[in-house]
Amino acid sequence: MTEKFTDYLTDNAREASINHLNTSLATGIQLQLAIKQAHWNIKGPSFIGIHELLDDVRARLDDHVDTIAERIVILGGTADGTEAGIEKNGQLEAYPRDAVHQDVHIEELKKRMMHFVKLAHEGLTEAGDAGDEETADLYTAVSRGVSKDAWFIGAHHTNAKK
Asked: Residues in domain Ferritin/DPS (predicted)?
């Protein structure tokens, strides 16, 4: 571990949080890429609304991912956003390169976003149980924000009115 700025935590608590945060970092980067893939390729009756929404969602996710990486460093770890780190720690399946229609993109993004929210909840519980309340609080904010954005995206599904 590098220099830490959390002397009030045990080494075990720090290590547990760093490990989970690096998984969240890698998975968050995968989600960032999925959102951009959809942004560039989406087609359908709500194209412009979703296209612009995805820019906003991506910007908010960028803030969450940055906060996750910074927390790793504050805890004395190394934020691993390298390709190797993403491949090793990321939990999302590859985004379908042939997706075009907005409903396909919405389903694919919503599924990935909800997985990321589940990962945040696991981190919240793990960090809280280890006594790292600040990391638990970080995960609460991530979960709240990404859940809301999943709702924003999911509401654009053409079957949402039925």
From this structure: 18-160
